[in-house]
Amino acid sequence: VAPHVSELSEALARRGHDVHVFTRRGEFDKYDNINDVHYHRVDFDKSGDLLYQMDRMCDAMFDSFGKIQKIFGRFDVVHGHDWHPVLALNRIKFEHQLPYIQTMHSTEWGRNGNNFSNYWISKEVSHREWLGCYESSQVVVTTELMRRELKQIYAVPDWKMWTIPNGIVVGKMHRALDPGRIKERYGIHPLSPVVLFCGRMSFQKGPDILVEAIPHVLRNRPDVCFVFIGEGDMRDNCERRARELGVQGSCRFLGYTPSSVKEEVINACDMVCMPSRNEPFGVVVLEGWDAGKPVIATESVSIINNFQDGLLAYIQPESVAWCINHLLHNPDEIKKLGRAGQQRIDAEFGWDRIARRTEEVYRRALGNASTAP
Questions:
Q1: Cβ atoms of residues 42 and 60 within 8 Å
Q2: Which strands sit side by side in the sheet containing 31-34, from one edge to the other?
Q3: Going by DSSP bridges, is the β-strand pair 37-42/31-34 parallel, antiparallel, or unpaired?
């Protein structure tokens, strides 16, 4: 979510808007101006459970909002992302009489494998997602799949939703490098094909599905190597399962890596694999395409056109393995799909294009606010 917010904000600033981002402070200064975007970072009590922390964050954001508005002048519209700032957004709506837009990047239902959890924190997160969709003037989703998901689980009406994809800075991931040298750094033969998983090691993202697919690939191509970038609660299980299957020698679990390492590996790999059980958008698809790589994903990823700019598998290991084997047997298709993905990046996913669409949402929200009783 953080790259989406910062890169969209910069694109809006380039189009002449005065953009202020309210976020957590962390290790940074309380105020920054980066590429003409004002960043206001708040401190808050980080003790207690997740909900307690988010409550304190929302209090701090609301207080900061009022102070900053006195300095810079009245804001026109507020734009929140996911459930975390919803309580602050609602206070701003009612106490400052400002409309807000809610972008839903994912849902608690999806993160739990397309199920509602009985855990009390999860229930409250779902409630805040519903509340943000209900109280906001407009709701932005990144795919038609997410649009249908919000209609199904939160009864969000069609007229209120806008489908605007995530974006990427064109050329952000592409690097001119020697793939063989990068592979050697991880003990991989320079000529061995590499399949890359990049994302959270969580049930939602399906790294275990890829692990289960590995034996079906190695039977045909024993030289293939599988690189996993990311941390999460499934990492230990995936490493253990790789040992049980006897494929640990063909796997590299890198954990969390700096962005520079991620960029090198994406450019060195032969294909990117996203075996997600639920995928609201899939920024990794854009990153793979930007680097000119073909992307294999499951049917939960809606932005891929099957056999045109990527391959879509069923959410099962055998299907994922079939897609990997298909590309390994057809190297020309690897190049063709990678080029097609790059062309879509240029045509559809640049931030300036997405900023123009977002302006339409803001105009609708402002129009609704001006006609409200």
A1: yes
A2: 19-24, 37-42, 31-34
A3: antiparallel
In what order do the strands lie in the sheet containing 138-141?
78-81, 100-104, 138-141, 161-163
Tokens linked to 312: 């879509």
Q: Helix or strand or coil: residue 206?
A: coil
Whether the CA torsion 99, 103, 108, 109 is positive or negative: it is: positive
Angle between helices 207-218 and 317-329 (to 10 degrees): 50
Which residue carries 């009783």 as its tokens? 373
What does the alpha-carbon distance between residue 316 and residue 319 come to, in Å, rounded to a whole number? 6
Burial track 113-134 (b if 16+ CB lie within 10 A, e otherwise):
eeeeeeeeebebbbebbbbbbe
Domains of the chain plus CATH, in order, are 2-167+350-371 (3.40.50.2000), 179-348 (3.40.50.2000)
Torsion angle of the four alpha carbons 256, 199, 55, 73, in this order, in degrees rounded to the nearest 10: 100
Residue pLDDT, tens place only, 250-303: 999 999 999 999 999 999 999 999 999 988 788 899 999 999 999 999 998 888
Its sign, for the CA torsion 348, 352, 358, 360, is negative
pLDDT tens per residue across span 179-196: 999 999 999 999 999 999
> Letter for the amino acid at 155?
A
Q: Measure CA of the first residue to CA of the last residue in the chain; give whole Å.
A: 34
* 48 CB-near residues (< 8 Å, 6+ apart): none
Give every strand in the sheet of 295-298, ordered side by side: 251-255, 225-229, 194-198, 271-274, 295-298, 311-313
The closest of 186, 200, 217, 318 to 256, measured between CA atoms, is 200
pLDDT digits (tens, 9 = 90+) for 317-343: 999 999 999 999 999 999 999 999 999
CA distance 243 to 157: 48
Q: How far apart are CA 313 and CA 298, in angstroms?
A: 4
- pLDDT, tens digit, for every residue of 187-238? 999 999 999 999 999 998 999 999 999 999 999 999 999 999 999 999 999 9
